[in-house]
Amino acid sequence: MNPIAMNWLGVLSYLNPWRKHRLETYILQSCVAMFAAALMVVSGLIFLVDYIGISKAVGARTDLTGVDLIVLILEKSPASILALLPFAFLFGAIFAFVNLNRRSELIAMRAAGVSAWRFVTPAAVMAFAFGVLTITVLSPVASILQDRYEAVANADSDTPAAQNSGFYMRQGDSQKQTVIRADSVDVNGARLKNATFWIYAIDPKGVPVFLSRVDAEDAVLRPGNWQLHNAWEANPGHQALYYDNLSISSTLDPQHAFRKYVSSQSVPFWQLPGLIHRNAIAGSPTTSYRLKLHQLLSTPLMFAAMSMLGAVFSLRLMRLGGLTKLVVSGVSLGFAVFFVNQLFSSMGKADLIPVSLAGWSPPVLAMLTAMTLLVYTEDG
Length: 380
What we know:
alpha+beta
């Protein structure tokens, strides 16, 4: 065997908490193989759908070659694949335990007095660990790739941020607030055209007090400041002053200041807390970012719950019959969980329910359902 492959197998074997227990290790290996197969199927479908969608969206652009199109697909697909990963764990668990059932291995294990919890725990723990890897590594990488895809896909398009007049935004902290208006904005370049800055100080009672107004022909957001060109500054009781170049301090991040015009999927997990904090201080909406943060944090629990659901509906012995019906019921329940997740997400975005409830309720409900069914299966 290839030495590199042997080294990887050694690392994976070391990470296996049941490496000294043959039964759990065998079940874990079967689940990993089926999860990988299900992930390949899901990824293949996503690549095909994205290829068709991207070909229609940017196929007419002459500046993109075939290689560029493939790169765009590879940049866009990871975010979609991560969104459908729960189904990979559901189908992977179903396939793994159905195969064990068909080979009568589950019958032998149950005859030996092995609890169903020993069958399900390795799959659930592996799915939970993969969920942690997803939110810490895979999701940030997918967000970066999604950001690159949006930058290329929207490079020559008139996005709402570029064509609508009357663009408004706000920045500031507990001491100073600035309201910004512009005729148009270049999202990718973080540039405003015909911008006006109204600067207010916050008094001890929290009441804004007008300080000055700055009108600029052009304003570019840099880390820590705005660079204004051809600017006029007007202060109450003083004559307006002209500046060829003027710098105004800023609390905004150039990469995320215009995120309300870009998909929230392009914000990496590690940057979400800081982005939420800055937007909250500036008075900008944070609902979508807080919802995404809670959904990401609940990802390991969702993966574990879906793998347990798949296992529970596949534990019925072949000789008792009705296995196909149970598997179909498991798949249907998985889609029901996905529907509930989307429903709660929509309600959270609309502020109908707290975002923490919207982010955590679906995986908690799925886990409680799986544990209830497992207890029923185990104890009859």
